[in-house]
Amino acid sequence: MSDLASDLESLLSEVIVQPHQKRCSISVVLEQITEEQREKLEVLVAPDCRVASGKVAAVLRNWGFDVGYQSVQRHRRRHVGSGCLCP
User: Fold this and answer.
1) 87: pLDDT strictly greater than 90
2) Inside any domain, residue 10
3) CB–CB of 20/43 below 8 Å?
4) Choice between 52 and 78, residue whose per-residue pLDDT is larger
């Protein structure tokens, strides 16, 4: 009879770790807009910005970008816990 550690170890050998490939919707927008627009949006999605994420998302949606308030919130938390994985 095998022990639990051995069984768990055999499962670990099956794990395939793949890096996060999908870019967040904010990074997609940042790539598609002008430098002047990018500078302003970067301020609005900075972690310390107090403008409501819903307002930022609404403006971007009005301009045809597929962005929800959750995307803005997640991008503001990048590199922290459950934040997005953007650099």
Assistant:
1) no
2) no
3) no
4) 52
The count of structural domains within the chain is: 1
User: What's the domain range around 63?
Assistant: 34-87
- Specify burial of residue 36 (Cβ count, 10 A radius: 0-12, 13-18, 19+): exposed
Residue 27: inside a domain: no
Q: 3-58, pLDDT tens digit by residue?
A: 888 888 777 777 655 555 567 899 999 999 999 999 999 999 999 999 999 999 99
Whether 19 is in a domain gets the answer no
Q: State the DSSP string of 9-77.
A: HHHHTT-------PPPHHHHHHHHS-HHHHHHHHHHTSTT--S-HHHHHHHHHHTT----HHHHHHHHT
Query: What whole-number distance in Å separates Cα of residue 44 and Cα of residue 22?
Result: 22
